[in-house]
Fold this sequence. Notes:
Layout: H1 5-18, E1 23-28, E2 34-36, E3 39-40, H2 47-53, E4 61-64, E5 73-77, H3 82-88, H4 93-101, E6 105-108, H5 112-120, E7 125-127, H6 134-148, E8 160-162, H7 165-173, H8 177-200, H9 207-220, E9 225-226, E10 231-234, E11 255-260, E12 262-264, E13 267-268, E14 271-276, H10 283-302, H11 309-326, H12 334-340, E15 366-367, E16 370-371, E17 379-382, E18 385-387, E19 403-405, E20 408-412, E21 417-419, H13 428-436
Parallel strand pairs: 1-7, 5-6, 7-8
Antiparallel strand pairs: 1-4, 2-3, 4-5, 9-12, 10-11, 11-14, 12-13, 15-16, 17-20, 18-19, 20-21
Helix pairs in contact: 1-2, 5-6, 8-9, 8-13, 10-11, 11-12
Bound molecules: glycine (GLY) and manganese (II) ion (2 copies).
Amino acid sequence: MKIDQSQFSARRRALLQQMLPDSVAIIPSAQMKQRNQDVEYPFRQDSSFFYLTGFNEPDAVLLLIPGREEGESILFCRDRDKLMEIWNGYRAGPEGAIRDFAMDEAHSIDEIDAVLPGLLDGMARIYYSIGRDDQLDQQVREWLNLIRDKVRQGAVAPSELVMLDHLLNEMRLIKSEPEQALMRRAGEISAEGHIKAMQLCRPGVMEYQLEAEILHHFAMNGARFPAYSSIVGGGANACVLHYIENSDVLLDGDLVLIDAGCELEHYAGDITRTFPVNGRYSDEQRAVYQLVLDVQKACIEMIRPGVLWDAIHQKSIELISAGLIELGLLGGSVEEVIESGTYRNFYMHRIGHWLGMDVHDVGDYKVDQEWRPLQPGMVMTVEPGIYIAADNEEVEPRWRGIGIRIEDDVLITAEGCEILTAKVPKEIEEIEALMASA
Ligand code: GLY
Ligand code: MN
Ligand code: MN
């Protein structure tokens, strides 16, 4: 299951069509990153670069030049190198970039300083996302200065620098059918990983052991890496929103919150489930859990084309505030709680985010200063949570240290929505039954 090469070419064509004439887009690959002595982090391609090329090597730069007769897609990449390939594996080289990646033209990355100024000369504007890559920012400045130095010989330097992000991010925000299929599978593998963790869990198991079980399932299904560092937080660790130490023992009577999702062919899953370490929710845990679950389901129920992004978040605030008052965790009316913001002591993040090649995916949340309406093909998470700090002396001790989040991935469809992560249970009885039968 991969994106076909023809799709990458089609995306480049679509972007080229939106670019103004006399312009050049410069889009860099990711670079290798050092982890420690002689060890590098596993390579992860830049999402936008991969979206436009399918090319999975570092040290590459894509140029798009609309209307250029000799060809509109030009790739600079590493040369083939017998010795380096013995140590580090295959390189496509410029020949492979044309043959296998449908580039119109390709050069060695070593030639970029020699070739690029000539391509920029006479162009009106450069599309480039400045501020992401210091080395390339510096090179772009040098290329521009080289042209400026030759104006008396007739060279014409581009006069406009346009951030490329907007055009590209809007394309990435709407997922095509093949992307939806990959995200459906990423959601399924992620869901199965959570089921495995529920089945393995019992008092005395370590947080990292549940993480290991999940990562094993991801890798066994072709998703070698998670889309982000997995969160496995027992008891009050669940109230640390980005807890990734995962080093504590799981205790009888506590809940465990797991936020984990796989990355499959550069597409992310993102799921949170919160379940009892011993397989049975206590009365307090059950009450808070049911509230979060009801809020999550009510929010998903709202999702369809035309609904404003922020309306879903506002709904979650209203319902959580009302629920917290009903449980006696907050005083006052719903209006007072919302007005004063006291609900934020328990619910301090937003309802969700776009999901795609990046777990917090690209795409504007507002258009012309207004919250944007949902459209078919967008994918978002829905992840309300309630976190009662262990040192919150304003609530009865029995509530303290409970942290609960429930998160699913939702594709907006023409009729409404599809939950991509529905395979992992979230109803209390379903979770208890699953854990009892493990
Ligand atoms: N796992 C990151 C998030 O839920 O936003
Ligand atoms: Mn999320
Ligand atoms: Mn998450």
